[in-house]
Amino acid sequence: xxxxxxxxxxxxxxxxxxxxxxxxxxxxxxxxxxxxxxxxxxxxxxxxxxxxxxxxxxxxxxxxxxxxxxxxxxxxxxxxxxxxxxxxxxxxxxxxxxxxxxxxxxxxxxxxxxxxxxxxxxxxxxxxxxxxxxxxxxxxxxxxxxxxxxxxxxxxxxxxxxxxxxxxxxxxxxxxxxxxxxxxxxxxxxxxxxxxxxxxxxxxxxxxxxxxxxxxxxxxxxxxxxxxxxxxxxxxxxxxxxxxxxxxxxxxxxxxxxxxxxxxxxxxxxxxxxxxxxxxxxxxxxxxxxxxxxxxxxxxxxxxxxxxxxxxxxxxxxxxxxxxxxxxxxxxxxxxxxxxxxxxxxxxxxxxxxxxxxxxxxxxxxxxxxxxxxxxxxxxxxxxxxxxx
Length: 389
Fold this sequence. Notes:
There is one protein chain. With 389 residues, the protein is mostly helical. It has a domain at 45-219 and 232-277 and 286-319: Rhopdopsin 7-helix transmembrane proteins (Up-down Bundle), CATH 1.20.1070.10. It has twelve helices and no strands. The radius of gyration is 38 Å and the shape is elongated. Its main location: membrane. It is found in: Membrane.
């Protein structure tokens, strides 16, 4: 947890002063830590420290995977596999931001922190789900036997799709905070959920594309069956791309289930808990909303890491398997048959004994024919001599 003091210090620089005397710090925190940020180091309420550790480990894993992809980029010669690097790097960079901003939902409220929460929640999720969507487009083209767009083109498409959600979130913050003058920390939960409807649409499209590749991927590019070697190679490639699509569908499905659970709790469950704890509502509307958002961020990040990023990095860096049919059908490595008069190779020494009886028979037949010819000549010569006499 060497990163924790740095994170606490950076968060404490956003808008909080030490004008009011602070209560004594809990076990695990120093006196210099402001009360809103003591949840990050309070060992008496362990859930904040555990969530912070899980978020930091997820961010570190995303960073390591991104560096590994950049180091191994030159070793990826296959264009189809290389095209997934761009969306993967976009996703890993977004996950790093997702884990980082989850810590902002653990600490107390102020105007600057609430603006950061509202402004970055939707665009970060939109970047994650647009990365999944462009991966689905890439896999569908590959399974159909077409060429995949380049990784930079797919990453640019993902950024363009996420830009729409960024505009929506920016307009929401500007209209409610700047124009109408409402506090950034006070907003109806339904408005917060509705601003993420575009993000949820991206997730559903990505899930539909991956499901289509898994169920019907082998039929997209079918143009008449054949038993040739090229058809077998194409079937093997389709199976490999369908394996990628299975992981993409699992990550999309798990994300959709998480969003259904989170929206149900955020819109209805937290209101019930707030109604029971009226004594804790003196400072504002929400009691458990911000911790619920932090938990949703961390779980979503790890779902995308475990079900998509790590398997996709493994499948991208793995060497393609060698085809077994090449040894039997590929004639580029076979030696030509020996010509007459050439030396026979060492492995063909058995051909001579097998053909030896035939050569002896031919020799004996030739010898018999010569003797008959000589006898016929002698007979004709004797007959000619008698006739001459």
